[in-house]
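Worked problem 6 (solution included).
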Amino acid sequence: MKLTKRSATSFINSQRYSIMAIFFIIFIFSVYKYSYSENNFSIKFDPLHENAVVEELRKSEISEVIEVDKKLQNPPAEVKALYVTAWSTTIPERVDGLIDLMKKEKLNALVIDIKDYSGFVAYDSENEFVLKYGSKKVIIPDVDALIKKLHENEIYVMARITVFQDPVLAVARTDLAIKNNVTGGLWKDNSGLAWIDPSSIEARDYIVEIAKDASARGFDEINFDYIRFPSDGRLSQMSFPFYNSKKQTKREVIKEVFEHFRTNLPDIIISVDLFGLVTVNKDDLGIGQTIEDAFENFDYISPMAYPSHYANGFIGYQNPAQYPYEVVKYSMEHAIERLERFKEAQEEDSEGQKKPLAKIRPWLQAFDMGAVYTPKMVRAQIDASNESGGVGWILWNASNKYSTKVVGLVD
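Solution. The predicted structure is:
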């Protein structure tokens, strides 16, 4: 083939572009450092080369992720849920197994820890307060993909947040934490965990920030646990930086917290976990929880009506754990009755309207304590709740060992 002047020019240009491409690739590798961890490919920016253009790309990627992840378009009228830890969601095979089990058992929701007793937020949150207090510990490698996958399988996704039991915040902000009046250090419960003073406004706002962040990622509901004062440990040694028992009762403080969350999360579905005994006791159990105070401030109230957690002799049963139907039915009937009485006495606002009230959706026992819990005993609790007016339910098993042998809802 004869090489003309034109073809020679084209050849030289092509070589020039090839050389430029090679230099560009070398440049890219000099700018970025790559890492592989937990089956996730990630890009880390070299601080010597990071620039405004790269930062804008990062921001646009985050915006795109949040925009894509939406709430479940057809949420269930009644939640039939399982609880799982953040760790359980890190194994793809286990997630697939849970989805298969849920389809088989006709379940429709998962409660996932995003901030548990450890105090760490379990996904890659960029919230300024989470970063400020060092409370991020990425356990769930890609929370957006996880939510998307669950939504694709018509599963309602709830984010569980432990509120005042918070060792991380207690260390980062000792001025907000409950102190030990003997040692002068942080007060800790029987599990060795530090707590935050429920009277702290900053602590309440911190939780609101985490809830908003989780909702923006696509979680359909925020479930709050440990909105209360401590119940175990050397309680007489507690010293509070804000709470003053001479000016407020514990009940008044916790009611303020309920109201704070509702006011600051007006467009987010929120639920609260309460001790099972709040359904029948008239006092605040010494921890500030009274069911009436929650009625106007949450979409759902979830009393932890585990039969094993009721004292021997409760409603005449020496071992309440052996009577799952009777214990749950008694608790739920009382909760619904108190809700109805509250509704009748509820005052109207200036426009003649009443605030919407929470529905009762209990936590139920799916673990062995006090008795070996069979599928029949799990179903007995569900039947008791449904018959009493409960709207959905959540099964608790701390080890997340669910199977048809545990659940067995479908014959």
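Discussion: The first helix runs from residue 5 to 31.
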